[in-house]
Specification:
By secondary structure, the protein is of the alpha/beta class. The protein folds into three domains: 61 residues, Beta Barrel (OB fold (Dihydrolipoamide Acetyltransferase, E2P)); 145 residues, P-loop containing nucleotide triphosphate hydrolases (Rossmann fold, 3-Layer(aba) Sandwich); 59 residues, Orthogonal Bundle (Ribonucleotide Reductase Protein R1, domain 1), CATH 1.10.40. The protein contains seven helices and 13 strands. A five-stranded mixed β-barrel has the order 1-2-3-5-4. A two-stranded antiparallel ribbon has the order 6-7. Strand 8, helix 2 and strand 9 form a beta-alpha-beta unit. Helix 2 packs across helix 7. 33% of the residues are buried. It comes from Oceanobacillus indicireducens. Keywords: Cytoplasm, GTP-binding, Hydrolase, Metal-binding, Nucleotide-binding, Ribosome biogenesis, RNA-binding, rRNA-binding, Zinc. It is found in: Cytoplasm.
Length: 294
């Protein structure tokens, strides 16, 4: 019995890479279908094989997390790519990504791209955003997309991580990967002027080796709905709220109208950004208005 990680899924075959770098083409056992289990890219598995093109996955080890879109497991890091311009920086959208990533116990990193398109005033504004998110504890990079300027500073982010890249269309997700490794030649959709969106054409999921880590070649979090997050879980997805939860007067405080709320007190003193609190309230309303699932 061998052990390895699924690094690609294509047409019912799973490509399993072992510690020595060998890759085996495997199928899933019928028992997985009967148990309604689908092997995912990123899964740690045990398998048997007769030759490198004829293997069978025997067991899937417990997952630390999984995504539906793209179907991938055991992610340790999500790089959220957002742009300063074209499309314009959107703090609410960034916070939405952060909450979704935090809710899956994945470590977020923020890349703000297209700094080369900004005016002096816009640069200053982006620097203030960088400071805001770094104070919360998020590693944040401001990037010029011109000739991949300064991209070598990003290499250390990938080491020993399984990374998924997330962000709205047109912000430069594929461009970043291509600049980091020009052998990838990932297809980048031109921004459609009428829609203000990009198009991504990847049809299968694969983990690519990059700087002693693995990166999914398909953008993550295509759904931005809070469809599995409960109202009482939301404050745990804001690190600056999370560290104050024990200081609220009431256990289970929702940080809305309750007296002696440590989160609201921190907002009033500026320790928590008003914009972050505003997005928390907006997201909480959205979750509370969600239709019940049966």
């Amino acid at each position: 019995m061998e052990e390895g990680r699924i690094i690609k899924a294509l047409s019912g075959f799973y490509y399993v890479k072992t510690e020595d770098g060998s890759i085996y083409q495997c199928r899933g056992r019928g028992v997985f279908r009967n148990q309604n289990i689908t092997p995912l890219v990123g899964d740690l598995v045990t398998f048997e094989y007769e030759d490198p093109n004829e293997g069978y996955i025997m067991q899937i080890k417990p997952r630390s997390n999984e995504l539906v879109r793209p179907p991938i497991a055991n992610i340790t890091q999500a790089i959220i790519v957002t742009s300063a311009k074209a499309p314009d920086f959107n703090e609410t959208l960034l916070d939405r990504f952060l909450v979704l990533i935090e809710s899956r116990d994945i470590q977020p990193v923020i890349f703000i791209t297209k700094m080369d398109l900004t005016s002096a005033a816009e640069k200053e504004k982006m620097e203030s955003y960088r400071k805001l998110y770094e104070n919360i504890g998020y590693r944040t990079e401001l990037l010029s997309m011109k000739d991949g300027q300064g991209f070598n500073v990003l290499e250390h982010y990938f080491k020993d991580h399984i990374t998924v890249i997330a962000g709205q269309s047109g912000v430069g997700k594929s461009s970043i990967l291509n600049m980091l490794d020009d052998s990838l030649d990932l297809k980048t959709g031109e921004i459609s002027e009428s829609l203000g969106r990009g198009r991504h054409t990847t049809r299968h999921v694969e983990l690519l080796e990059m700087y002693n880590g693995l990166v999914a070649d398909t953008p993550g979090f295509s759904s931005l709905e809070f469809d599995t997050l409960e109202a009482n879980e939301l404050s745990y997805c804001f690190p600056e709220f999370r560290e104050r939860l024990g200081d609220c007067k009431f256990r289970g405080c929702m940080h809305l109208k309750e007296p002696k709320c440590a989160v609201k007190a921190a907002v009033s003193t500026g320790e928590i950004a008003a914009s972050r609190y505003g997005n928390y309230v907006r997201f909480l309303e959205e979750i509370m208005l969600r239709k019940p699932r049966y």
